[in-house]
Write a structure and sequence with these properties.
There is one protein chain. This protein has about 350 residues and is an alpha/beta fold. About 35% of the residues lie in helices and about 20% in strands. The chain has two domains: about 80 residues, GMP Synthetase, Chain A, domain 3, CATH 3.30.300; about 260 residues, P-loop containing nucleotide triphosphate hydrolases (Rossmann fold, 3-Layer(aba) Sandwich). A hairpin with a 2-residue loop joins β1 and β2. The longest helix has 18 residues. The chain is globular and about 75 Å long.
């Protein structure tokens, strides 16, 4: 006799890179309806599925048919990104469900390139995404998104509209100043500018806002952690020992401000010679995996040291936008989906579902 318990047990036995601990822990099994030897299973996930949805449906149906061959199964798979709680309980922001900070500790590891491509990857998967350039002194998003010289518009003279490029919303101090202008500001001024950039931008119903942090652990990072409801963080590093040492400092910073680290992205892991095809670990081997093990998080993925990534970013057409079906883009998409799946397991922010109630004496 076909039972819900038997179906649930078989479904929960399925595991892959995104569902390491099964469908029950992911809280994905929403409803099972049985009519004789026919069952309809409703599944709902808290992260964008993209093409993974068809793959998952095929594998789960095959799993059920093999374990329960006398029954017929129909799967209804959906997804919806939910708002997740900020551990330090900073007030949630309207129109932004989740804020993910991308940090490095050290400059020159490709953090900004990784940030913009992860944002584009989440968009490719079906999410609504924005990216905030938090580097006040050296903004790079206008160039990377092909919008240098573009200025944001305002509808109310108080707030500004984000600049859209390749389907994602973006904001940067680089949109508000001349390209050659230097921001000769002390820390508090830069911190204030960051708060204005995020609070005075009319973000439009974002599932994820990716914040590209400057390197280091100074005023900008502390302002972000204390004043902005960051949901989680991702650390970018190269396999080089010096980069790993600074990445550990970034992780320690997030621990101190109660921001969970979803995982590590290893950039510039391997270079492939364009002439002979020889592969070489220019900056070392296995550093990202070692760091992930040390701090107890997942290695979300490794990215190559490739000339095309640099050229495409300089041309305002990041890799995921320029070659969406290329191998490197598929790598970015896999990392972004793994990151989103990890975030989906965190505690939800239920306050975001209720309106703010104000009582005034009249």
């Amino acid at each position: 006799m076909l039972t819900q318990e038997a179906i649930t047990q078989q479904l929960n036995s399925y595991q892959d890179d995104l569902l390491v601990n099964g469908l029950i822990e992911a809280k994905a099994i929403k409803n099972i309806q049985i009519d004789g030897n026919r069952a309809t299973v409703s599944l709902k996930f808290g992260f964008p599925l993209g093409t993974y949805q068809q793959e998952l449906e095929h594998k789960l149906v095959a799993l059920l048919n093999k374990a329960l061959p006398d029954a017929e199964f129909e799967l209804d798979i959906k997804w919806r990104v939910e708002a997740h709680a900020h551990p330090a309980k900073v007030q949630a922001m309207p129109n932004i469900k989740n804020i993910i900070a991308v940090a490095s500790g050290k400059g020159g590891v490709g953090k900004s390139t990784t940030s913009v491509n992860l944002a584009l990857a989440l968009k490719t998967l079906g999410a609504n995404v924005g990216v905030l350039d938090a580097d006040i002194y050296g903004p790079s998003m206008p160039i990377m998104l092909g919008k240098q010289g573009k200025h944001p518009e305002s509808t109310d003279k108080k707030t500004i509209l984000p600049i859209e490029s390749h389907g994602i919303q973006s904001m940067s101090i680089g949109y508000l100043i001349k390209p050659e202008q230097a921001m000769v500001w002390r820390g508090p001024m830069a911190s204030g500018a960051l708060q204005q950039l995020i609070n005075d931008t009319q973000w439009q119903d974002l599932d994820y806002l990716i914040i590209d942090l400057p390197p280091g652990t100074g005023d900008i990072q502390l302002t972000m952690a204390q004043k902005i409801p960051v949901t989680a963080a991702v650390v970018v590093t190269t396999p080089q020992d010096i980069a790993l040492a600074d990445a550990r400092k970034a992780v320690t910073m997030f621990d101190k401000v109660s921001v969970p680290v979803l995982g590590v992205v290893e950039n510039m892991a391997m270079h492939t010679c364009s002439n002979c095809g020889h592969q070489e670990h220019v900056f070392g081997f296995g550093g990202g995996e070692k760091l992930a093990q040390e701090i107890g998080v997942e290695l979300l993925g490794s990215l190559p040291l490739a000339l095309a990534i640099r050229e495409q970013s300089d041309q305002g057409m990041p890799t995921v936008a320029a070659e969406p079906n290329g191998d490197i883009s598929k790598n970015y998409i896999a990392i972004a989906q793994r990151m989103a799946a990890k975030l989906a397991l965190q505690e939800k922010e239920f306050r975001a579902d209720f309106p703010t109630i104000t009582i005034e004496n009249t």
